[in-house]
Amino acid sequence: MGGLQKKKFERGSATNYITRNKARKKLQLSLPDFRRLCILKGIYPHEPKHKKKVNKGSTAPRTFYLLKDIRFLLHEPIVGKFRDYKVFVRKLRKAYGKSEWTSVERLRENKPTYKLDHIIKERYPTFIDALRDIDDALCMCFLFSTFARTGKCHVQTIQLCRRLTVEWMNYIITSRALRKVFLSIKGIYYQVEVMGQLITWLVPYQFAHDHPTDVDYRVMATFTELYTTLLGFVNFRLYHSLNLVYPPKLDGKAEAELKEEDEEGYAMNSESYSEKLSALGGSLARVVSAGEEEEAEVDQFPVEGEDMEKMEAREKEQKELEAQKRLFEGLKVFLNREVPRESLAFILRCFGAEVSWDKSVCIGSTFDVTDETITHQIVDRPNAEKQYINRYYIQPQWVYDCVNAKILLPVQDYFLGVTLPPHLSPFVEEKEGDYIPPEKLKIMALKRGEKSEEEEEEEEEGEGEEEEEDEDEDAEEDEDEEEEDVAEEMNLKKMEKQRSQGKSLSVKVTPGKVKAENPARLEQEEKAEEKRLAIMMMKKKEKYLYDKIMFGKKRKIREANKLAAKRKAHDDAEKVAKKKKAKKQ
Amino acid sequence: MRRKEEQRENMSKAKEKSVRKRSGEEEQEEEIFSFSSKQPAEEEEEGGEGGGRRGGRRICPTARTACSPAWRILGVTVRRRRRRREEEEEGDVKSGDEEETAQQGAPSVLKEQEEEGGEKEDEYENDTSDEEDIRNTVGNVPMEWYRDFPHLGYDLDGRKIYKPIRSQDELDHFLDKMENPDYWRTVHDKQTGSDITLSEEQVALVRRLQSGRFGDVDFNEYQPTVEYFSRDVMLHPVTNRPADKRSFIPSLIEKEKVSKLVHAIKMGWIKPRRVEDDSRGRYYDLWASEDSSILARHKMHLPAPKIPLPGHQESYNPPPEFLFNEEERALWEQQDAADRKLPFVPRKFSSLRSVPAFPRFVHERFERCLDLYLCPRQRKMRVNVDPEDLIPKLPKPRDLQPFPTTQSLVYRGHSGLIRSISVSPTGQWLASGSDDGSVRFWEVCSSRCLKTVQVGGAVRSVTWNPNTAVCLLAVALDSRVLLLSPSLADRQVVSASELLLSDKEGAEPVQGAESLVTWSEAEGEELNEGIRLKIQHPKAVHQVAWHAKGDYLASVMPDHSSHLQVLIHQVSRRRSQNPFRRNKGLVQRVSFHPLRPYFFVATQRSVRIYNLLKQEMTKKLQANAKWISSMAVHPGGDHVICGSYDCRLSWFDLDLSTKPYRMLRHHKKAVRGVAYHRFYPLFASASDDGSVIVCHGTVYNDLLQNPLIVPVKVLRGHAVSQDLGVLDVTFHPSQPWVFSSGADATIRLYT
């Protein structure tokens, strides 16, 4: 058999992958630069299927990149910029060392810079792609905009992040795209729907960060560099899609309103303008001053293969959405100084409420506390000293719960000093068999238009329990059967023992019991057995999979049961405590 | 003349004093007297005069430097004036001196000098400067050194200059102070040791200087400055010097430098100043033209997964059931960070204002960043199947009836575990052999024990002769095989079996194996019990198996190291033979083919099939099991099932392959016995887990159709004792009933 001997690792998967170090050498970049490039270009390592084959027989742990990815990086113009920058730093250091200040200045002036526009375009070829991936960008920008102006990163970056996030929020307000909000222990989650894409981001609470030491801020800064560029372009496009002026400008009307106020506090005009924008108080200027609320009615086209039911459901959904968008319309809300102003103003404005706050809190307040037409005042303190009769004093959670429930919830649960009902995550969608907290059931009942009576609630709870019991029964049935069998057996054994021992059986005729045979149950049993036998016949692979699925299901049920039990115990304990209190009184 | 000399001396002394005496307070005075433009020289002179003085000088360096230009100007003016005066003197000799002094006042000293100069012109002719007139050439030594001497240095001729006689004590001092009206303006000169009384002018000068004014009364410090050089181009050059040649030819050094720069720019080493472009922070419609050319990124690209959305636990005010209780919290704290279900502890806050900052916020974001660019991404196929779909669609057991479903009878009586049972070919009797050393015969329908035969040893195996014309039972115990005729049938049958066993007089040993095996007839008591023949083997017999015709009997003596493991006996001729010449492994079970002359031998891991006529091996079946425990042959003869100690049951289709057609792992523990039904498509397996599983196994005549195997019933009832459950299982020959014997000394019938 002639022919050349085949060499190992010269074909197949070994040639498709490249280790990190090799890639770095190929690109002639230092590790930090390589990392930055990977971040900017969105290149990530790959896990080969056969590690040993790719690793040329070695099993040493290595990071592998796709060779194609690295080739793709080779043509990146930014790589050249990185090299330039390296040279620039070297020259600058040399000039510093020699104290050649003129050349330092000259070098400084010629500092190499790069733009990321083409990378954004390349990574996100369509606008929808960019929107799909904007979650992280928003999270990061919102985080950076809360950083202190000193220390961890450039002030320009922080300011840029702040500007972009304010632009984003203003867009959301104008387009009324907010869908869900959630107060978590980490921060506030917002979910919006922009062009059919659900976008979620997290904003930390307004506190100073204690910067951890084990975080590499260079990596974060590189990400932010990319994300700010992305967010800027996205904002531009979104503003233009609504015919808004970009960079955003306040509406003439709103501006006039704001002008009246004293502006001595802000020395620079530009600064005060950006502050006004970030107050989220006024509406934005449009390119074409269209008549307000002029939205063309969208024609409905029946999609093929869709029956009437589905279409109706969709219509209904659409209506609900429209209703949600006008949730707070007509409300006039005043924010006390202790509540998170930005978040609440953002949410309330998103759903059409009029918002104002104390003048000293922020620029851009439109009305005063003393305004008689205020309907709600949001307060987060045990009691307010001076109360107006014609307005509700409520805690901030009411706003968030209303948004999630898509209806205006009764305010009495949220009055000052009242123990608040639990705040539930709107992101949890319970499937069958999952645990649903009773508060959610209550809200669902409210939405359906039922009165929220305590009794009903309990009934529902009872139902829930029954269901659970049913589930338990299934599992227990077999055991029951076995138990019965065992009992019979025992009886028989006894008799036989007596017989075999040669004792004269104490013959006694007892009235026989008619065994109530439940045909349904019998059938069920039969089916269960059938299933068990069929399971015995499964192939090994399928059996494994089946077991795994069933294990997961059982665990889910167990967890749900556990939660339900915990809740029950808690409720019982509370009831007892209430009774005791009543007795004492 | 004499007086003048004295005066001069006095003056010079005063001068010297002013030069030498430089304590901090007197500094200004010193300056007064030395209108000197040669200050640096002076300083040099003073350089050696000891640290103390220097220190004194340094106290007010700023004042001194501030004054110095003024002094210089002063010096210039003085000089000028002097020159003028000299000119005047030339005109009218020594006339208006007095008026001048009255006019000037300040440099009275000078005036006196002038006066002197007038007389001793030779001495002061060339004295352009106001160099000090030092009479006492004591040098640069501190005056303290002369304290104890009567003199104070030497004059030019080398004579001592004596100190003036001063015999003033304190009292004189005091009186002087009281009486002398000029005491306040009297100054002691250390250099000459004399007292000097300052004149009015001198005092006035001191006063002026003390108050920070110029010494010269006439000097106007605010007069307009006269600029020597101005920006106006003068008509005449300042100097008449012609321009240098080098001012006409370009500089070589500069040329070199320029050429270097030019070269550097040419080579690109120096870049011209970059044009500032502010397009970096400028946004535009990036997606204005969405072309699909770059859409096609390679297939392997995976978008990053999104962060999972928060659940109820993460709320600042979660429902109470989501909060941790004590144990959950303890567990959470114990667990490694990677194992935790939640990366945080759920907490409840009564109001929004009490919610603190989340301490790990930056961390989490950073970890997300790391995940985005450092984590390998992999597409995990999530199996999204309904578990019900995974269950194979089998025919319903109900459709596969009949099969045994319930336990109907229990046969009790044995006291040891029952290793083997066998049903008579008529289906009326059941024989069982137990470790208690007895063989019992039961009537199947009534579960009555009709007969008990004590054989004197643990019975390993019992088998009814399949021939319905005779009624014989083979029993294996220890190293013997007994043939019993239990006389549980018609007289005819009994006599037939007796006949089969008895008429063997003519038979004589033929084979060499004969010597290993001895046939003997039972006598006396044993005969009464029904034992007819005893076949003594050299080793312990584990199993006996009848040929379908009922004449041949095979016995198994498992032994690792011998080729003598299987013997085939012919009952009618009382002959035995060892069919195998070679040891092919530990033999577990043997069985005859029900129809054809084949012989199945199950060794530890395989089943060998021998053709008895051709005396050769036809097939070797590989059971994928560690240790075969039992074997049964389908009544059709084309299928074999093997049970093994590793819980498996393998079904072989002899036409298909030598590998098992199907491995069934229904049992949890070792399979002890397997059996086929003679008519019904049923087979059963007994296991140590105390269960008997009955399966439906249809065999089709069509060779293309594989057997259908469906488990139909799990039968339980036997108790597990000493890790042994059901030891043997067998079917009723005509009914769909199954018998099982167990370690709990019972036999059970399931119908």
UniProtKB/TrEMBL annotation, chain A:
Basic and acidic residues bias (residue ranges): 490-499, 514-527
Annotated InterPro entries: BRCT_dom, BRCT_dom_sf, PES
SMART domains registered for this protein in UniProt: BRCT
Cellular component annotations (GO), alphabetically ordered: nucleoplasm; PeBoW complex; preribosome, large subunit precursor
Biological process terms in GO annotation: exocrine pancreas development; maturation of 5.8S rRNA from tricistronic rRNA transcript (SSU-rRNA, 5.8S rRNA, LSU-rRNA); maturation of LSU-rRNA from tricistronic rRNA transcript (SSU-rRNA, 5.8S rRNA, LSU-rRNA); oligodendrocyte differentiation; regulation of cell cycle
Compartment(s) of residence: Nucleus, Nucleolus; Nucleus, Nucleoplasm
Pfam families: Pescadillo_N (PF06732)
Secretion signal span: none
Listed GO MF terms: ribonucleoprotein complex binding; RNA binding
Source domain of life: Eukaryota
Segments for region (Disordered): 447-527, 561-585
Quaternary structure and partners: Component of the PeBoW complex, composed of BOP1, PES1 and WDR12. The complex is held together by BOP1, which interacts with PES1 via its N-terminal domain and with WDR12 via a high-affinity interaction between the seven-bladed beta-propeller domains of the 2 proteins. The PeBoW complex associates with the 66S pre-ribosome. The PeBoW complex also associates with DDX27, PES1 interacts directly with DDX27. Interacts with IRS1 and UBTF. May interact with MAP1B. Component of the PeBoW complex, composed of BOP1, PES1 and WDR12. Within the PeBoW complex BOP1 interacts directly with PES1 and WDR12. The PeBoW complex also associates with the 66S pre-ribosome.
Role played: Component of the PeBoW complex, which is required for maturation of 28S and 5.8S ribosomal RNAs and formation of the 60S ribosome.
PANTHER family linked to this entry: PESCADILLO - RELATED, PESCADILLO HOMOLOG
Name of protein: Pescadillo homolog
Species of provenance: Myripristis murdjan (pinecone soldierfish)
Gene that specifies this protein: PES1
